[in-house]
Amino acid sequence: MLSDQLLDVTTWAPLIDAFPKPGTDDATGIFLLRRALEFILRHELAHVALNHEPRQVAEGLTTIECEREADLKAASWLRGSLQADSERSLEARLAGRELSLEQRAVSIGLGLGCVI
Ligand SMILES: [Zn+2]
Questions:
Q1: What number of other Cβ atoms are within 10 A of residue 80's Cβ?
Q2: Residue 35 Cα, ligand 1 centroid: separation in angstroms?
Q3: How far is the CA of 27 from the centre of ligand 1 (A)?
Q4: Distance 66 CA to ligand 1 centre (A)
Q5: Measured in angstroms, how far is the CA atom of residue 53 from the centroid of ligand 1?
């Protein structure tokens, strides 16, 4: 029966290789997934660090305001000190710290899609 198959994900869902060959699409996917999860964790920790629960009562912050603050704090934590190279030409390939910044930006976008 179809509903039984849908409930038993162990029989049809592909197994996730947590340690794929470097340079493969699977490795990129795992990297982005891990970073997205890091963003989500940071978002939740930001709610605590920013004292949202007491501030919502004391300051009348809305839930949306709290979510935006948590998003910004999580993105800031994940970005760290990485910055875009304003001297790099538009055609040049990203590398090093700037590539890491770009990967984190993509992951933040993926993570945002999960916490909204
Ligand atoms: Zn939140």
A1: 11
A2: 17
A3: 28
A4: 7
A5: 11
Tokens 């179809």, residue located: 2
Amino acid present at 38: E
Token readout for 2 is 């179809």
- 40 C-beta neighbours (distance < 10 Å), count: 17
Contact 78, 6 (CB under 8 A): no
The rounded Å distance from CA 106 to ligand 1 centre is: 19
- Burial label, 82 (beta-carbon count in 10 A; 0-12, 13-18, 19+): middle
Cα dihedral 60, 109, 75, 67 in deg (nearest 10): 10
CA 34–ligand 1 middle distance (angstroms): 18
**pLDDT (tens digit, 0 to 9) for every residue of the chain, 116 residues total?**
566 666 666 677 777 788 999 999 999 888 888 889 999 999 999 999 999 999 999 999 999 999 999 999 999 999 999 988 888 888 888 888 888 888 888 888 888 887 76
